[in-house]
Design goal:
The protein has 416 residues and is of the alpha+beta class. 59% of the residues lie in helices and 9% in strands. Helix 4 (32-54) runs antiparallel to helix 5 (57-74), helix 5 (57-74) packs antiparallel against helix 13 (213-240) and helix 7 (86-105) crosses helix 9 (137-147).
């Protein structure tokens, strides 16, 4: 899934929550509150299962925070009632943004790690602070004046929000701004990172509607749903996207081959002399070459979709294209790869160099030119099998290598 989809998909449930707010008739439905309540708990349980299965601590702890907020707002009313004060709400609005941002930007960790212990301590401290504010009102007054000197009450609000408490505006909006910046900077686990842009506002809005339990639970459920969607996206990415190159992997190719029609072309591409690049320049350079090659093949055009087949081999499928038409697009991308230099640094940094000498080079010191060989086969009859077409394309690829590499060879599948 694209980076755009990673941002948009988790926002579907918060968007649905907004629609519910704009349609009062839905809220008046007799079982609305019950459905939302149990849906929220179901999603939180689902998140826990997925987080354990994929060893992801951040969504697990985000779900724990939401579960505690669920309890704080909907269960044990007699027990929690003394703690649901304006001061505790101010505290949550100040602490949740910081804790959420901390969870978001922390390095990817397993469930049992030092970071997990630190997050647990943070959650416990927030709970202790909520308790202390209720037990020591005088301290609560001082803290409230300290953290709410600039509030959202200075901004005109719709009537639906008029009865809500003051919010520490700087903390809430500052946390959102930091998350937006981090989401565009951080590259790993993009689905889990970008989902915070939906989880965080929904969580804050849930706290904001503390006086209207049904609306608070609606927003907490939307936040839990955003976590679920991001985990499903992450699972899909792990299963069908190649971790090194970022393009669909062999499993995705096999799924695609099951749904091909009666007319298509398949191209196999192989990086020429790749083992030599690895032996000479190291595996890191080899990985960078594969990433660059994949990026260029990804934009082959003609409706073609590139997959990493394994090692330095790639497959491109052209639905509805004859071999000759697919060959034209493959020829263009082959020329593009041939004419796109790959730059890498050759300076060897020695321990006794001065700081000035250790500075990175402003310009690349050396360029490598890589080439690919490609073989193409087409299915133009109803009885051919994708596996046979792939084998024929593979034979054409080896023919391209035998003839000197850096070329495209077109073959045709035999009728069966």
């Amino acid at each position: 899934m694209s980076r755009f989809g990673a941002f948009v998909m988790p926002a579907l449930l918060p968007a649905l929550a907004i629609i519910v707010l704009l349609l009062p008739g839905i809220q008046s439905f007799s079982s609305f509150d019950t459905i939302i309540h149990y849906t929220g708990w179901f999603l939180l349980a689902l998140n826990a299962v997925f987080s354990i299965r994929f060893h992801r601590a951040q969504p697990m702890f985000a779900s724990i925070i939401l579960a505690l907020l669920f309890l704080f707002y909907t269960r044990f009313d007699t027990f929690f009632a003394p703690y649901r004060t304006t001061e505790s709400l101010w505290l949550l609005f100040s602490a949740i943004p910081m804790l959420s941002f901390w969870l978001m930007v922390s390095p990817r960790k397993a469930l049992l790690s030092g970071s997990s212990i630190a997050w647990s301590v943070g959650i416990i401290l927030i709970g202790f602070a909520v308790w202390a504010l209720a037990k020591f009102p005088l301290a609560g007054d001082h803290i409230a004046r300290a953290i709410s000197y600039r509030t959202i009450s200075d901004i005109p609000l719709p009537s639906i929000l008029a009865t809500s408490p003051n919010l520490p505006l700087i903390s809430v909006l500052g946390g959102l701004a930091c998350m937006i910046i981090a989401a565009f900077i951080m590259q790993k686990d993009i689905h889990l990172i970008s989902s915070w842009l939906s989880i965080y506002p929904a969580m804050i809005l849930g706290i904001y509607f503390f006086a209207q339990t049904n609306l608070a639970i609606l927003w907490f459920t939307a936040a839990a749903g955003s976590i679920s969607i991001s985990l499903l996206q992450h699972a899909h990415s792990m299963a069908f996207i190649d971790a090194l190159t970022g393009i669909p992997n062999r499993r995705a190719l096999e799924e695609k081959m099951r749904s091909l029609g009666s007319k298509y072309s398949i191209a196999m591409a192989d990086v020429d002399h790749f083992k030599q690049f690895n032996d000479t320049h190291g595996h890191k350079t080899g990985d960078q070459i594969l990433r660059k090659t994949a990026a260029l093949l990804f934009h082959v055009g003609g409706g073609g979709k590139a997959y990493r087949y394994g090692g330095e081999e790639f497959v491109i499928i052209f639905p509805g294209k004859q071999a000759r038409a697919a060959g034209q697009y493959c020829q263009r991308v082959r020329e593009s790869i041939e004419n796109s230099p790959f730059y890498f640094r050759t300076r060897k940094r020695l321990r006794n160099k001065t700081p000035a000498e250790k500075r990175p080079l402003k310009k690349p010191a050396r360029a490598l030119y890589i080439t690919v060989s490609m073989g193409i086969a087409a299915c133009e009859i109803n009885s051919c099998k994708p596996e046979d077409i792939l084998k024929t394309a593979d034979k054409a690829l080896y023919e391209a290598k035998r003839l000197g590499r850096n070329r495209v060879i077109i073959a045709h599948a035999k009728e069966s």
